[in-house]
Design brief:
Shape: elongated
Order of helices and strands: HH
Structural class: mainly alpha
Strand content: under 5%
Number of strands: 0
Number of helices: 2
Number of domains: 1
Distance between the termini: 24 Å
Helix content: 55-70%
Largest sheet: none
Length: 52
C-alpha cells in the first residue's frame, strides 16, 4: 500500500468518525477513530525477502 492510498484511507476513517461523533453515535465514532489511529501507525513490509 503506497502512501497516498494509506493517507486517503485514514482520512476517510477520520471523517466518518467525526460524522459519527457529531450525529451522536459515540461508540461507532470511537471504534472508527481507534481504527484510524492503528491503521495510520502500521508499517507494511512490501519488500520480498530474497535469500536468508
Amino acid at each position: 500500500m503506497n502512501s497516498l492510498s494509506k493517507d486517503i484511507t485514514v482520512g476517510i476513517m477520520f471523517i466518518v468518525g467525526l460524522f459519527g461523533f457529531i450525529s451522536g453515535s459515540f461508540i461507532v465514532s470511537t471504534v472508527v477513530f481507534a481504527m484510524a489511529a492503528v491503521f495510520s501507525n502500521m508499517h507494511f513490509n512490501t519488500e520480498t525477502k530474497k535469500g536468508i
